[in-house]
Amino acid sequence: MPNKKSAKKRVITSERNRLYNKYWTSRCKTAVKNLLEAVAAGDADTATKTFNTAQSVIDKAVVKGVMHKNTAARRKELMARRLKALSA
What we know:
3 helices, single chain, Methane Monooxygenase Hydroxylase, Chain G, domain 1, 0% strand
């Protein structure tokens, strides 16, 4: 337990940030998972729509500071490769 006032504030702030980061991380993972499921099912139209949605969610997470830009680029590249393999 924190004893000082500033330490108590930091506990509150870090918990708030943890929940915020958890929300965006979970949202990114769900978007990628939806795309991969659509690719596995072989549905090109749904895969394309979910690809656009997933890219948008990942880019928003980068802007909010939840995800590093290189991590986002790597995940988007993985999704693009899977989508391209589906259409080929």
